[in-house]
Design goal:
Blueprint (H helix, E strand, L loop, with lengths): L1 E4 L1 H8 L6 H14 L3 E4 L1 H11 L11 H12 L4 E3 L4 H13 L7 H12 L4 E3 L13 E3 L11
Length: 153
């Protein structure tokens, strides 16, 4: 089985200081090791990852571009990764979904990811922002349970 990965899960998985790092690791390990599955990545998600993890406004200590590229190349070249490349049909479907669902400019990237997954027949998407994707009825959304918060005594 193939699981698409949203940018937020990819960041949490590959950046140890991310608040949901442990959740993302468990989710990916469960999918790949325990279920024998694969994860699907798109250039769009990788480009967004690079943009975010190198941004000093988003991270106290952002990754340098060479560090970020090194992490992505290690994952992109992994045998557990299915590379999903957009096609002209994906662009047409993205535009169709934007119009049909009356989505605005802030929904373009999510819609492009959804269209890419749909054309690749990947029906499951791991995201920590399920509200961004619920509108796409062809996707099953997968979220890792959050780590339990320590109890204060």
């Amino acid at each position: 089985m193939i699981l698409g990965i949203d940018t937020d899960v990819l960041i949490s998985w590959l950046v140890e200081v991310s608040p949901r790092h442990a959740d993302a690791r468990r989710l990916i390990e469960s999918e790949v090791r325990e279920r024998g599955g694969f994860i699907a990545l798109t250039p769009l998600v990788i480009q967004e990852f690079l943009h975010i993890v190198t941004d000093p406004k988003r991270f106290k200590e952002p990754l340098s571009m060479p560090e970020a590229i090194q992490r992505i190349e290690a994952i992109w070249d992994s045998e557990e990764v299915v590379r999903l490349l957009p096609t002209a049909e994906v662009l047409s479907r993205t535009l169709e979904l934007l119009a049909e669902l009356r989505l605005g400019r802030k929904r373009i990237l999510d819609t492009a990811l959804a269209a890419t997954l749909e054309f690749a027949e990947v029906r499951r998407l791991a995201t920590f922002n399920p509200s961004d994707f619920r509108i796409f009825d062809f996707l099953e959304l997968v979220d890792a349970p959050q780590s339990p918060r320590p109890r204060l005594v």
